[in-house]
Amino acid sequence: MDGLCYGGDYNPEQWPEEVWHEDVALMREAGVTLVTVGVFSWSSLEPSPGRFTFGWLDRVLDLLAAGGIKVNLATPTASPPPWFGLAHHDALPVTAGGTRLTHGSRDTYCVCAPPYREASVRVARALAERYRDHPALAMWHVHNEYGTWCHCDHVAAAFRDWLRARHGSLDALNDAWTTAFWSQSYADWDEIAPPRATQYLPNPAQSLDFRRFLSDATLDHYRAQKAVLRELTPDVPVTTNFVFGSWVPVNNWEWAGEVDLVAIDHYPDDRERAAEQTAFAADLARAWAGGRPWLLMEQAAGIVYTGTRMRAKRPGEIALHTVQHVARGSRGAMFFQWRASRGGSELWHGGMVPHAGPDSRIFREIRDLGRLLPRLAEVEGGVLADVAILWDPESWWALEAPGLPSQEARYLDALHQAHRVLWHGGVTAGFAHPSGELSPYRVVLVPSLYLVSDATARALTAYVEQGGTLVVSFFSGVADEHARVRLGGHPGALRDLLGIRVEEFLPLDEPVTIRPHGDDGPPTINGSIWSERVELRGATALASYEGGDLDGLPAITRHRHGAGRAFYVSTRLDDDAYTAVLAAAGVPAEPVPAGVELVRRSGDGVNWLFALNHTAAEQEIAVTGTDLVTGASADDALRLAPGGFAVVRTRDVVVQPAITGYACGARGSATASQEDVKRREQ
Ligand code: GLA
Q1: CATH architecture of 387-584
Q2: Ligand 1: distance of its center to the CA of 304 in Å?
């Protein structure tokens, strides 16, 4: 599609046919270009096994085509109809506790159950055969937010096959899982089960392998549908919408290589941190997309359910958050959903057309956004970011295991803090996978990377030797890929690189005092949650613990290694202290007013500056160029209204490398390209 995609999930099956005509008229008024149709329409499409009722969908697609609106046609497999569960009891998911779930919500399926696999492929094929030549068809949207867990016998059988392929032999598996502990040694593959509810602590390596397996098994279900769609419509891109949450057993780095366009759903759940969360999600999507365009497939137009209560979006926030996504490479903005439902489980979730109808603040904002987006369509090219955060879902999964030294040392907290500190410092962050290409980045932050394979240790070492700067934080590099501790002192995989040896971990009940060395900066700072007994083995101490069991021992260190430097932070710092460490590592905060976000894009001979004001006061930034939002020229300075934004085509000097590729693909499909740092003046 030319230009930016704009639209949302369209669920006409919820409405009488006369409403469809009003829908298309309103979509045209709002500048909608793309709608996702049919995500949850399986029971309308196949009301009984093998009997398809396409008439209504024919009429919907014809109406949309006549209105000039393209369709992102979904396969409906995220919500099998009632008949399916009744006919195929064994395809309903089973919880870890052994409860078989029933139909009544959505996502009641098991991706390993043969009847579900067959029914999914059959409905995908029927859709593709029917609509392969339909003029409205622009893209396939397989399923919805893959992420259902199951522990049934089909899963157990598939898990065993997966384990055979991964470990090769039972001896290797027993060794990897350390099954000698608590008499868990397996003598036969059939003895192995998914990590179902058990009496006390489960085996951490078994749980970790299960999450890896679930990601692969789910991906297999996606691939089966994709194969059918490819066969029948080779030129139509295929995607699925990624969602990020602790319940999602999907390794997005691996999945990203399987979609033609990375698509994410994003619902910030903290009103005060919504802008920060939006930047985080969009930076992740950009990384998964390997620098290629990606698409914000869902966001909320109005009220959004956050798990405990509903949150309304403030006036202007729909556009502000959308522009944050576009700044980071989204080729448009889509919503869940076009029209707010009048009933059903999510009746209170906002829509582009709210319950109040088009005469509403929300619809007016939607219409205004539809007019704005075409003006931003010229923006292409890489996002300028030369600082990356290492993001490894397997370390995350491993750190969620019970039985670790501290349940407060949470991976996502560490990851979010790294991003937050950069974001508040005006630094646009990239994300990289440990096996990805790091050389485009000047500095790489490594928050609590618990699992480090030998290959990752070698890659991080080579990165520093060649001149990179690494900032590693506590509880990194201590375990191998089977979640087994590396012996001889922590952080086993990174000891030499960091020039330290950690003898023991001391989780903290109370904050501890740390005294930075040197004259600049605060006299003391605090560390919390975690501390370590660090011995210098070539590194220099930048700060030391004061008082307590670790009095006088190093807390923050720096080690020169090859042409680069490796910093180590052995406790959790607050954001200000972390910012100071980053400054020492060569990442100074940008001189922008607090609450103002800048993102730079660089295309073929053109630069753009996205400037977003997340404060309640007017702000001024230094820039010269043309604001695509208003059409006005900025000469040296531009004023941003409270909550306002500008997208300036600028002739300003670009001083960072234009990184257009990112580390991508946990299995070595990195597509990063390194460009020389250059000053470019147009
Ligand atoms: C997800 C789903 C949608 C809808 C929204 C709103 O992103 O994909 O179907 O449920 O959440 O909560």
Answers
A1: 3-Layer(aba) Sandwich (3.40)
A2: 10
> Does the pLDDT of residue 591 top 90, yes or no?
no
Domains of the chain by residue range: 5-152+235-378, 387-584, 596-655
433-489: pLDDT as tens digits: 999 999 999 999 999 999 999 999 999 999 999 999 999 999 999 999 999 999 999
pLDDT score recorded for residue 306: 65
Residue nearest to atom 10 of ligand 1 (CA): 346
Residue with tokens 């700072």: 525
Distance CA 450, CA 443 (A): 20
Tokens encoding 217: 């098994």
Confidence of residue 654 (pLDDT cuts 50, 70, 90): low
Is domain 596-655 annotated with CATH 2.60.40.1180? yes
Structure-block tokens of residue 556: 């923050």
Nearest atom within ligand 1 for CA of residue 267: 7
Q: Kindly report the protein residue whose alpha carbon is nearest to atom 5 of ligand 1.
A: 336
Residue 265: is its pLDDT beyond 60? yes
- In terms of Cβ atoms closer than 10 Å to its own Cβ (0-12, 13-18, 19+), residue 213 is buried
Question: SS3 sequence, 504-549?
Answer: EECCCCCCEEEEECCCCCCCCEEEECCCEEEEECCCEEEEEEECCC
Of all atoms in ligand 1, which is nearest to the CA of residue 145? 8
Ligand 1, atom nearest to 241 Cα: 8
DSSP-assigned letters across all residues of 14-67:
GS-HHHHHHHHHHHHHHT--EEEE-TT-HHHH-SBTTB---HHHHHHHHHHHHT
Q: Could you tell me the distance, in angstroms and rounded to a whole number, from the CA of residue 257 to the centre of ligand 1?
A: 23
pLDDT for 663 equals 31
Q: How many Å lie between the centroid of ligand 1 and the Cα of residue 346?
A: 9
Among residues 46, 276, 298, 317, the one annotated as catalytic is 298
Ligand 1 near 148 CB (within 6 A): no
Counting atoms of ligand 1 from 1, which one is nearest the CA of 243? 7
C-beta of residue 567 within 8 angstroms of C-beta of residue 584: yes
Ligand 1 center to 265 CA (angstroms): 8
Residue 191 annotated to the active site: no
Using the mean position of ligand 1's atoms as its centre, give its distance from the Cα of residue 645 in Å.
Answer: 27
Q: Whose CA is nearest to atom 3 of ligand 1?
A: 336
- pLDDT for residue 283 is more than 80: yes
Architecture of domain 5-152+235-378: Alpha-Beta Barrel (3.20)
Q: What percent of the chain has pLDDT over 70?
A: 95
Percent helix, strand and coil across the chain, each rounded to 5? 30, 20, 45
Q: Is 366's pLDDT higher than 80?
A: yes
- Residue where the block lists tokens 């109040």: 356
User: What would the pLDDT profile of 390-406 be if each residue is shown by its tens digit?
Assistant: 999 999 999 999 999 99
Which of 143, 265, 339 most suits a substitution to test ligand 1, by most atoms within 8 Å of the C-beta? 265
Residue 145 is a catalytic residue = yes
Distance, in Å, from the CA atom of 430 to the CA atom of 428, rounded to the nearest integer, reads: 7
Q: For residue 311, what pLDDT is reported?
A: 81
What are the tens digits of pLDDT across the range 419-429?
999 999 999 99
Q: Is 265 touching ligand 1 by the criterion CB < 6 Å?
A: yes
Cα–Cα distance, 426 to 592 (Å, whole number): 7
The pair of three-digit structure tokens given for residue 654, joined into one six-digit string: 């670009």
Q: Is the CB of 336 under 6 A from ligand 1?
A: yes
Give Rg (Cα) of the chain.
26
Sign (positive/negative) of CA torsion 67, 15, 72, 43?
negative
Q: Which of 233, 222, 293 is nearest to 262 (CA)?
A: 293
Residue type, 622: A
CA–CA separation, 554 and 76 (whole Å): 56
- Separation of CA 484 and ligand 1 centre (Å): 37
